Amino acid sequence: RILARAAYEFAMDGLRRHNTTRILICAHHPASTQTYITDYFDEISVLDNKWRREVKVVRITRGIFRRDSHYNSYFRNLSQFRREISEEKYLHEKCLVIVTTYMTSLQLLSIIKCDDWSFTHILLDEAAQVREPEAIAPLCLAGKESKIVIVGDSKQVGPALVVLGQQAHENGLAVSLLERLQKKYKGYGGDAEQYLKILTDGYRCNEDITNFLSTLFYNRKVKSRVQVPTHPRAKFPFVFYCCDVDRTVRAPQEPAFDVEADAVLQQLKHYFHHRWPRDWGEQNMNDLSVITPMRNQVNLIRKKLDGQLKKVNVLPTYMIQGHEFRSVFLSTCEPLEQDGRSQDPLKSLCNPQVFNTAISRAKSLVVAIGNPFMLLKIEEVMGSRRRCWREYLRLCLKHNAVYFPDNYKIRDRIKLMAQIEAAVGMESQENSPFLIDKEHDLEPSVQRTPPSPSVLPKVVKDSVALLPKSYADVAKTNLKTDKGKKYEVAPVNKQLTVKDDDEINVSSSESDSESEKGESRDQYL
Fold it and tell me: pLDDT 10s per residue in the chain (525 long)?
């Protein structure tokens, strides 16, 4: 939203000054580039006659697009764009806006061969999610006077999670361009640091979802700027539906996945079978999504959907970035190792970065389906200090939003509810991030409202969270629970581990010497 508004202001300012304005907007996911067209630029063309007459907007895609789409006039594939450039179309436009992905932008360099032609403004969206070589690609289309804006959220899935191999990490490929620039600017201090801005306004999720994520991941207040009503059948925007509940945590067998798929279908029907909320406008089942870590579970759930529910999106966790939905249903069942560790931590909903990405896809309602004890066990053995599911369950318990299948007896439900409360430590919440000292809720340099175009920062960071101690430090001590129980921390030895800054790395060992390389964390903060 902010980048779309920035593009609008840049374009209008150029037209007022009679200057040539060429704007390139890059996003990591095609779905995000689509959003710029459908939700913003097409709407602007309806409301602003000057924009419609004098601004040329093009979305470049490497694939095909729907021929019957209302937005067809904006779309060009690479072949069409190459042919039109050879006819010198677009090169002499007074105001041009091109929207594409990072990788497709690299193709533009070979298509636009004019030495004196460059973009006046380059806006990089989702910059914390792409590897640095991808982020640099569109910068090849900049000139000496180009203005560059970089936006992203490093607390969601990014290079630290998807870049594998110790050598790749040692050579810096696990750090995004956004994170590298942020650290550089902080190191420079003085005037350089003014180009770092932290946004505190959210434009997607309702207030409760925004508050939960901002408290759990960013240690500061993010204010929801949109009025998004929740579902009238939900007491609270977060719901947990217990499925295949068993205190004995084990690797789920094939029937367990089928049981959970049936539970997902049951929950979809409970909320949306002839019950589309009036406050949500016209019924659109495509605005709902089921998210699960496993491709097999995706296929299983899709087979079970029938009628109107066939239009519901069913996506694996590694394909959800760039999307947003009115409501999200999380199917949490996944294969486990013998010790309860996820077989694929990079896709697991118990991975904090994946969890954050999945929850933040929802505008109004999140319904999680699964075994709460299994989720808590996975979080424990993965070694992350940020226990996302523990806090999620605490919130659901607090608002009476934990439910069981109809065939569970009242006595069994009461017993399981007490066990869940004990497992998440409802009696004592000393370690909960929801009891943060109010003095530290906001960083001093936060920006409460979007900047004016004249002072739009060159680097915008959606999120900065205080970094906890390293996993190596934690591993040296016995972690104590509220009741005095001690848990042994398994040594890190050639296996995927979640460090407590929520990055999954492949490393053979971790020691104090490694954590002391470069700036100390105290200096960084």
Answer: 889 999 999 999 999 999 999 999 999 988 889 899 999 999 999 999 999 999 999 999 876 556 667 788 899 989 899 999 988 899 889 999 999 999 999 888 888 877 778 999 999 999 998 999 999 999 999 999 999 999 998 888 888 777 777 888 888 888 899 999 988 888 888 888 888 888 888 888 999 999 999 999 987 788 888 888 889 999 899 999 998 776 555 556 667 889 999 999 999 999 998 889 988 989 999 999 999 999 999 999 999 999 899 999 999 998 898 899 999 999 999 988 888 888 888 899 999 999 999 999 999 999 999 999 999 999 998 887 788 999 999 999 999 999 999 888 899 899 999 999 999 987 645 555 554 333 333 332 333 333 333 333 344 344 333 323 332 232 233 333 333 433 333 333 333 334 434 333 322 233 323 333 333 323 322
Q: What is the per-residue burial (b if ≥16 Cβ within 10 Å, else e) of 34-51? A: bbbbeebbbebbeeeeeb
The CA distance from 361 to 292, in Å, is: 13
Q: Residues 515, 519, 520, 524: is their CA dihedral positive or negative?
A: negative
Nearest-10 crossing angle of helices 388-398, 352-359: 40
Contacts of 119 (CB under 8 A, 6+ apart): 22, 23, 24, 98, 141, 142, 143, 146
Rounded to whole angstroms, the Cα distance separating 122 from 144 reads 12
Phi, psi of 437, rounded to the nearest 5 degrees:
-60, 125
Give every CB contact of residue 189 below 8 A, 6+ residues apart in sequence.
none
Residue whose pair of structure tokens reads 């942020």 in the numeric block: 182
C-alpha–C-alpha distance, residues 88 and 80, integer Å: 13
**Contact by Cβ (8 Å): 451, 225:** no
CB 201 within 8 A of CB 175: no
Whole-number Å distance between alpha carbons of 423 and 343:
23
pTM: 0.74
210: exposed, middle or buried (C-beta count within 10 Å: 0-12, 13-18, 19+)?
Answer: buried
Angle between helical axes of 78-86 and 102-111 (0-180°, round to 10): 30
SS3 category, 231: coil
Burial class of 258 by CB neighbour count within 10 A (0 to 12, 13 to 18, 19+) = middle
Q: Is 292 helix (H, G, I), strand (E, B) or coil?
A: strand
49 token code pair: 């006659």
Can you tell me the distance from the alpha carbon of 343 to that of 163, in angstroms, rounded to the nearest whole number? 17
29, 97, 218 from 5: Cα distances, Å: 19, 13, 25
Residues in the chain: 525
Question: SS3 for 299-312, per residue?
Answer: HHHHHHCCHHHHHC
Our CA angle for 88, 90, 95, nearest 5°, is 145
Residue among 236, 239, 241 nearest 208 (CA): 236
